[in-house]
Write a structure and sequence with these properties.
The protein has helices at 7-18, 67-81, 150-153, 165-174, 197-212, 221-224, 233-237, 326-346; strands at residues 2-3, 25-26, 86-87, 94-98, 101-106, 109-113, 116-118, 140-143, 158-161, 180-184, 245-246, 250-252, 255-257, 263-265, 268-271, 308-309, 312-317, 354-357. It is an alpha/beta fold and 359 residues long. The structure holds flavin-adenine dinucleotide (FAD). Flavin-adenine dinucleotide (FAD) binds next to helix 1 and helix 8.
Length: 359
């Protein structure tokens, strides 16, 4: 059983099929495309950091095409060509343990399975930090997941919160057309050199170290640093990135109060504050360590190979922590399929992995 049909779930399905492991992929979205179908319209294939290939099929090239068209079309064609056994829309509410089996519940429906690959990404769990009086703000608030596009915000003073790549992109779009104030918790770390494979490996290794210890996965930006691209040069020339401020003290109905007591009026708050792993449905399995994250087992000599939950070897997580990128998910998917094969062998399973129950 695979939950989620984004990059991670489709790659996992491929590697399970390669090993002759019967499975089904449950996906909450009505259409193929994983989180990509929900990205904002102005995000083009030129803007994305890069979409890795699904096994055996080249990903869409860099172009001016909208990412929320190009990637879903790519995933849809992949599902059709490879007969990926996807069922949608099926939102899994919870997964429970019943003896040797896992019971996957989605509304009235349930499935029993010996193993599970969880590939549910992060998009459905946008994170907004708590700030006093956040609900008293009279203007509009958005998150990266609900970004309405630059035209909607034109002419309004937008406060952008967050020190990651999304905030940098939003400033690039918005600063040339509307007043923008940027706040981050920490001083942004800018990278002026090329992003080398070594830097990428260091970032992933840092995140892997955290999940092996059972800590919640961290943002890789703390290691990779931020970089400005051609699209952001206009905003940079206006000084939008230099005008970054430390966090405000509190939110008031018409704006924010700074630590020095001064007030700034803003019309919109855009929380570019990231996402958390969408794993609430796994709560009954009690996979979470006392450190607050799901601890995964390290696979020696294979960064991004950590997929097996320490507390339940029947469960693999792909697209979680070190594998939360398209390339990481593709790599980890293979590792997860190997672990599933091992777990099935251990429980003397034959090819009949799935037993559907009810409609
Ligand atoms: C704005 C933004 C831009 C990004 N750009 C890049 C980039 O350029 N390159 C890159 O490598 N990475 C990028 N990432 C990271 C990116 O999220 C991952 O690389 C990748 O898309 C995640 O794939 P996934 O399969 O893990 O998750 P998703 O694509 O989110 O797929 C998860 C699927 O699981 C389904 N699902 C979730 N919960 C349930 C449930 N309970 N029951 C059933 N189904 C469920 C969802 O409906 C979804 O279809 C970006 C992230 C963000 C937020």
């Amino acid at each position: 059983m695979v939950i989620g049909a984004g990059q991670a779930g489709l790659a996992a399905s491929h590697h399970l099929s390669q090993r002759g492991i019967e499975h089904v992929v449950l996906d909450a979205n009505p259409q193929p495309g994983g989180a990509w179908q929900h990205r904002w319209d102005s995000l083009t294939m030129q803007d994305v950091h890069g979409v890795a290939d699904l096994p055996g099929e080249p990903a869409p090239p860099r172009s001016g095409k909208r990412a929320n068209d190009a990637v879903p079309a790519y995933f849809g064609a992949y599902e059709a060509r490879h007969d990926v056994p996807v069922l949608r829309p099926v939102r899994v509410d919870r997964v429970e343990s019943e003896g040797e089996l896992l019971v996957v519940h989605a509304g009235e429906r349930q499935w029993r399975t010996r193993t599970l690959v969880n590939a549910t990404g992060t998009w459905t769990r946008p994170f907004v930090p708590f700030y006093p009086d956040i609900d008293t703000f009279a203007g509009e608030q958005f998150h990266t997941a609900t970004y309405p596009g630059s035209e909607y915000l034109r002419g309004r003073h937008v406060l952008i919160v967050g020190g990651g790549a999304s905030a940098v992109q939003f400033i690039g779009e918005l600063a040339p057309i509307t007043p923008v104030t940027w706040v981050t918790r920490r001083e942004p770390v800018w990278r002026h050199d090329d992003f080398t494979p070594e830097a990428g490996l260091a970032a992933v290794t840092m995140v892997e170290e955290r999940v092996v210890q059972g800590l919640p996965p961290a943002s890789v930006v703390t290691v990779t640093g931020l970089a400005l691209r051609e699209q952001e040069q206009g905003a940079a020339e206006l000084g939008a990135y230099d005008a970054r401020r430390p966090m405000f003290e509190r939110i008031e109905p018409r704006g924010v109060r700074w630590a020095d007591g001064s007030f700034e009026a803003v019309d919109v708050i855009l929380w570019a504050t990231g996402f958390r792993a969408a794993v609430d449905h796994l709560a009954p399995l009690r996979l979470t360590s006392p450190h607050g994250g799901i601890a995964l087992e390290r696979v020696d000599g294979n960064v991004q190979g950590a997929t097996t939950a320490v507390r339940d070897h029947r469960v693999q997580l792909v697209g979680y922590g070190p594998s939360a990128s398209t390339i990481g998910a593709s790599r980890a998917a293979r590792q997860a399929a190997l672990a599933v094969e091992r777990a099935l062998r251990e429980t003397e399973a034959d090819a009949a992995e799935l037993t559907p129950v009810g409609g």
